[in-house]
Amino acid sequence: MTMTAPEEVHPSLWRASQLARGATPCLDTGFAALSAQLPGGGWPLGVLIDLLVQQHGIGELRLLQPALAALGTRPIVLLQPPHAPQALALAALGLDPSRLVWLRSGAKSSDALWAAEQVLRSGCCGALLLWQKHARGETLRRLHLAAQSADTLFCMLRPLEAAREASPAPLRLSLKPAAGGIDIGFVKRRGPLREAPLFLPLTPNLLQRHAPLDRDTSATAPARSIQPAMVGG
Amino acid sequence: MVLDQERVLAMSDLAYGAGVREGMRRGGAMMLVPQAVFQQRAPQLEAEARHAVAMALLQFTPQLAEAEEDTLLLDIGASLRLFGGIRALCRQVQASLRALGFTAVLSCAPTARGAWLLARGRAGRALTVAGLLRRIAPLPCGLLPPARPYLDWLDGIGCRTLGQLRRLPRPGLQRRCGRALLDMLDDAHGERPELHAWLAAPASFRARMELFDRVEHAEALLFGAHRLLLQLTGWLSARQLAVARISLLLEHERGRVARPPTVIEVVLGEPTWQDTHLLRLLKERLAKQALDAPVIGLCLEAPQVQPMAAPSESLFPEPGGSKEDWQRLLELLSARLGADNVLRAAPSADYRPEHANSWISVQEKIRPAALRAQLPPDAASLPRPAWLLDQPVALLMRDHRPYYGSPLRLCSTGERIEAGWWSVPQTRDYFMAEGEDKAYYWLYRERGGEDASPRWYLQGLFG
User: How far is CA B73 from CA A77, B82, B110, in A?
Assistant: First the structure.
């Protein structure tokens, strides 16, 4: 008697050694190495994605850029970002400034969560990026539930310390800067546990616009490449 | 307790429990319930209430007439399919009456007079002529106003119900009781065409209501605002208009100092004629509003209207929702967070980064073409950080290197920005730098003076 493989019984079952192939629609991350490590082969849509960043400005937007650019003309909402976003830089990343909406939270701290819920429930937006320092368990559950009502790419960016707290998000990644890119740690995913972080090369694409300022070696002319007559010998 | 000519006309449940009945004299009622509050019947207020209900019900049919004894007649023959059948329509009418704060008896019948009789006699609904006849036959004769002077006589000949009245010989009845009674009976049975003076919606909308009490919390005003909004919806659908701007005036108590009413203005990006969205917007606005003085009255005006645009139903709905949904979301967000917290990018053509990166409220309209014209043609080749600090941070110097958490290593060529002689001059050299934590920063060196030590500032983070 042969046993049926569990993944054939129901789509939400998977072996602990393989990645889940859920019915959640996914959006390609644009990085083949990362997509291969995510269940469904990309960022899942309509769920809460927890991105735990060590500090702001380590390349979190560059990581999301291919996915955000692939959303077409649907609006992108930046909710409570840590600093003022610069439209010119986002335009350079391929995000049309007319698609961007920047929401600052009002007087009350609950306003940001309320706004996030409204944005998710309306389902008009392609992506919602929410920066939040502290979030309670029931808040996360509520946002996760709201996210399921539409196919919005919903990323919540929180400090790295939040990795110790439980979260209902099916995908939790920790982002740490590394030389020439970032290290992505898989805190939680529907698939096998992976201890080693994944290194993704992500340099600001403008870094190499001109030759770098401090070169390691000065360009030396190879021997006998210059005609003696020109040297004037 | 409401009195009409010194007799009790209506009372609260409490007074009824204490033994007060309709038609009692004032003195008797006072003896039973000494602490009762007596109100004189006010025909003016009743007419206003009837008018308010009529306005709200105009959303169900354009043909609406006022009839005798506080009844409203609605011709719903053409509205049945739109509202999903008679049951659904009755439910919606009841719901909007409840939202207005009134209780009503609802009946329907193939003839208007028949429906009127059923409602007055609380005899339910009839959908066919046969059912109507069956239902109105046992109703008492006293329901018909022309029959009231002859009730004693009718009672004396053993004629107590409409069915019996109908079987009396017509010529005799006409001689004794007049033409009006027979006409009314014929109307009810559908044997005579009925003529109604349909109510016409006024050319402009303005509805006001007095509150029962002084209200000190703005959120408590939502109930009253909902009643006014319902009237607005009725008016809008009767005139086939959509509203682009509404203003709610909160009238304050006239104390020692007269105060002008507080105005709450709601501007809509996309004109609407449904009250649900308006109600959500008003709810958020009222939650934010701080009241200087107690409110005693509300007034709703629709200063800006335009013809209703027919909804276009596309066969395949767009995945991201329609443009109207997006506008509605932005309006809702600006109602709660404040219009200056819901921003869209409006980059301006300026070399100085602070000035180039401007964000404006979503309520200010700019053309996409104008927006694109402000962008540099080679946006992708300009090194700009995703985050711009509000205030540049002056950096410490250690070993002749700028220091921010760790020594920063410059990793790009400089970009000299020297502009703004017309307002705020800037002479800066911008660099990208990498810290030991491998994050990238955007720094600048202030050029300016001739001092030996250059001053470094941190202005942006690369996201």
Answer: 50, 19, 12
Is A10 an 8 Å CB contact of chain B?
Answer: no
Question: Measured between CA atoms, how close is B459 to chain A, in angstroms?
Answer: 11
How far apart, in whole angstroms, are the C-alpha atoms of residue B382 and residue B332?
36
**CB within 8 A of B185, min separation 6: which ones?**
B144, B162, B165, B166
* Kind plus residue range of the DSSP H or E element containing A89: helix A87-92
**List of domains in chain A:** 47-232 (3.40.50.300)
Minimum distance, in Å, between the CA of residue B412 and any CA atom of chain A: 5
Nearest C-alpha of chain B: how many angstroms from A169?
23
**How many helices and strands (H and E) does chain A possess?**
7, 11
CB–CB contact A58 B438 (8 Å): yes
* Nearest CB to B320 within list A56, A91, A124: A124
Q: Could you report the average pLDDT of every consecutive run of 10 residues in chain A (233 residues)?
A: 70 75 79 86 88 86 87 86 86 83 79 88 87 86 88 89 88 87 88 85 62 46 52 44
Q: Determine the residue type at B405.
A: G
Are the beta carbons of B345 and B384 closer than 8 angstroms?
no
Model-level pTM? 0.67
CB pairs under 8 A between A and B: 189
- Flag whether the ipTM exceeds 0.90: no
Put simply, whether A215 touches B (Cβ < 8 Å) is: no
Report helix, strand or coil for A102: strand
Both tokens assigned to B395:
């950096």
Domain ranges of chain B: 2-10+42-188, 206-310+322-336, 344-374, 383-461
Please give the full DSSP string across B176-245, using - where no structure is assigned: HH-HHHHHHHHHHTT-S-----PPPPPSS-EEEEEEEEEE--GGGGHHHHHHHHHHHHHHHHHHTEEEEE
If one looks up domain B206-310+322-336 in CATH, what number appears?
3.30.1490.100
Distance of CA B402 to the CA centre of its chain: 58
B320 to A126: CB separation less than 8 angstroms, yes or no: yes
Task: Walk across the sheet containing A171-178 and list its strands.
Answer: A198-201, A181-188, A171-178, A48-53, A153-159, A127-131, A76-79, A100-103, B342-345, B359-361
For the beta carbon of residue B40, count every other beta carbon within 10 angstroms.
Answer: 10
Phi, psi for residue B253 in degrees, rounded to 5:
-65, 140
Write the residue in B382, B387, B411 that is nearest to A84 by C-beta. Answer: B387
Least confident of A222-226, B360-364, B377-381, B450-454: A222-226
Q: What is the pLDDT of residue A207?
A: 53
* Cross-chain residue pair B343–A56, CB shorter than 8 Å: no
The answer, for A6 touching chain B at a CB cutoff of 8 Å, is no
Report the residue of A88, A102, A183 to disrupt the B interface, i.e. the one with the largest count of B CBs within 10 Å.
A88
* Measured distance CA(B430)–CA(B95) in Å, rounded: 65
CA–CA separation, B372 vs A87, rounded Å?
12
Whether the Cβ atoms of residue B385 and residue A185 lie closer than 8 Å to each other: no
User: Which three-class secondary structure state does DSSP give residue B411?
Assistant: coil
Closest residue in chain A to residue B343, using alpha carbons only? A102
Q: Give A160's contacts in chain B (Cβ within 8 Å).
A: none
Q: Which of A45, A60, A103, A124 to probe by mutation at the B interface, max B CB count within 10 Å?
A: A124
Cβ–Cβ below 8 Å for B320 and A179 = no
Q: Distance between CA atoms of A139 and A167, rounded to whole angstroms?
A: 10
